[in-house]
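Render this sequence as a predicted structure.
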Amino acid sequence: MTNITESTIIVTGGSRGYGAGIAEALVKAGARVWITGRDADRLTETARRIGATPFVADVADGEAWDRLMAEVLAQTGRLDVLVNNAGEGVKIGPASEQTDAAIAQSLASNLTGTMLGCRRAAAIMQKQGSGLIVNIGSACSTHAWPGWSVYSAAKAGLLMFTRCLLTELRPHGVRVTSVLPSWGQTEFTDAANLPPRDPAVLAQCISPADMGQMLVQIAQLPAHLVTEEIKLWPMVQPMAQL
């Protein structure tokens, strides 16, 4: 088992939802954790509550990634784990009702931003000869549902990018993993203007704490092992697709 005590970890989209749950679990496991987000007040409050270091940044901004990596390396000299969790629904609805701006924003938030972070982390980790990148995708990357075309396309692209990245980084001792959750206890439903779920059903969906526990387990895997993909379903969710 890999000891992650004092490991240097970045979690994007860490001010709420899955990101906050992941960051909190990693802090409790003894890691030094940086969390990113665009809402400075919310990010600062979450960081204070869980014991992480806040860094205000939009993942789609390459210069912000450069500043973040420079700060982390200046303080610790290494990067052990990058968890790319940031993403958003933007607009869930038929393709005919999308706007060009919504499509561009969805791709930037759910695909391009992660690729920008991975590019920088890959260079650092290759030089170290070790490291772990975990990209939080979605069950939408492999399942088709009406209204989810743009979001699903971005997440499907992320899944294939992650698969290819693993083949590139394995020879350097760097592991890359996709985690593909479905229904969750996050603000995603509200942010995407979807109908609210029944509270009894929501209580059985994936919680931020569930994701945090999973990420700790992934990070603690022996360095000679890698889990390529994990798809996580709530038992209450129908798994049928079109």
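Summary. The chain has one domain: 8-232. The two ends are 40 Å apart (CA to CA).
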